Amino acid sequence: AQSVAQPEDQVNVAEGNPLTVKCTYSVSGNPYLFWYVQYPNRGLQFLLKYITGDNLVKGSYGFEAEFNKSQTSFHLKKPSALVSDSALYFCAVRDEDFNKFYFGSGTKLNVKP
Amino acid sequence: DSGVTQTPKHLITATGQRVTLRCSPRSGDLSVYWYQQSLDQGLQFLIHYYNGEERAKGNILERFSAQQFPDLHSELNLSSLELGDSALYFCASSPHPVPQETQYFGPGTRLLVL
Description:
Chain A has 113 residues and is mostly beta strands. Chain A has strands at residues 3-5, 10-14, 19-21, 24-26, 31-38, 44-50, 56-58, 64-68, 73-78, 87-95, 100-103, 107-112.
């Protein structure tokens, strides 16, 4: 069965510190992995994706994500957090065989000044 | 602004009623996806249409149905509404028949069932 897990409901980090939002996945076949951000009262916005290639993927707003096949993880990272990064972050996986997206439960990121 | 529009923005109705949510994809996008976001279930994929044809189904209840019209807009019909159907309903669009590329999300329709 295809699934995505975000083990943390909430992540708190101080502005200027590095941040990590965790995601693990389980799919059959090659994974297609995505990160989205949702600001209050807004739809999801695409941040970055991993299809093939380098394990470190760079995306929008200074975010990057590291694909780790052995650990089946795709953690979202940013070297220096901003207060404006505070939002809800979703990891998603698309299984190439089943043509569907599966989203994680979301992680609320709080960046404090 | 993603270019995806959804109407209405807010909808309040009673249990047992039927509602229709509308989505207009970005210009040129042939795929439309519907999602339900609720507090207890998170973000759930409901259904995907491509160029008028159903491509994939997710956790969509039998009380719910969708269609995509020749002008590519899509409607999600929710019937026999229950309190638990209260949620934020998103549609997303993309140019491709499979969700390989970025999906562009609309602002959502907030449904409240009383």
